[in-house]
Amino acid sequence: MKFRQLQIEIIIEQKPDPSWEIWFAGLTASQLSEDSLKLTGVVPDHAALFGYLEIIRNLNLNLISLKVEEK
């Protein structure tokens, strides 16, 4: 089974916090509004994607949307 990289876009509803930088290393953050943030990037596999989703849950952030495309 061949694993493909994934292009991801995650939008969370939360005011950005500089301390999150370490948790979302490897993703590019863009502030969409005062209370929402878009995280984009390429991850090696689904396990890495689920790792980011687990971080979002552990930080108690509100997930607005998730887009995933195989590369």
Account of the protein in words:
The protein is an alpha+beta fold and 71 residues long. It has a single domain (6-70), classed as Alpha-Beta Plaits (2-Layer Sandwich). 18% of the residues lie in helices and 44% in strands. The chain has one helix and four strands, in the order E-E-E-H-E. A hairpin with a 2-residue loop joins strand 2 (28-33) and strand 3 (36-43). The radius of gyration is 12 Å and the shape is globular. The model has no long low-confidence stretch (mean pLDDT 93).
At the fold tier of CATH, the topology name is: Alpha-Beta Plaits
What is the CATH architecture term? 2-Layer Sandwich
Give the N-to-C terminal Cα separation.
15 Å
| Mean pLDDT, all residues | 93
Give a quick account of the main beta sheet: strands, pairing sense, barrel closure: 4 strands, antiparallel
Radius of gyration: 12 Å
Tell me the strand percentage band.
35-45%
| Uncertain regions spanning at least 5 consecutive residues | none
Number of domains: 1
Give the class-level CATH name: Alpha Beta
Percentage of residues in helical conformation: 10-25%
Strand order of the largest sheet: 2-3-1-4
Order of helices and strands: EEEHE
Give the helix tally: 1
Number of strands: 4
- Sheet/helix structural class: alpha+beta
**Principal-axis shape:** globular
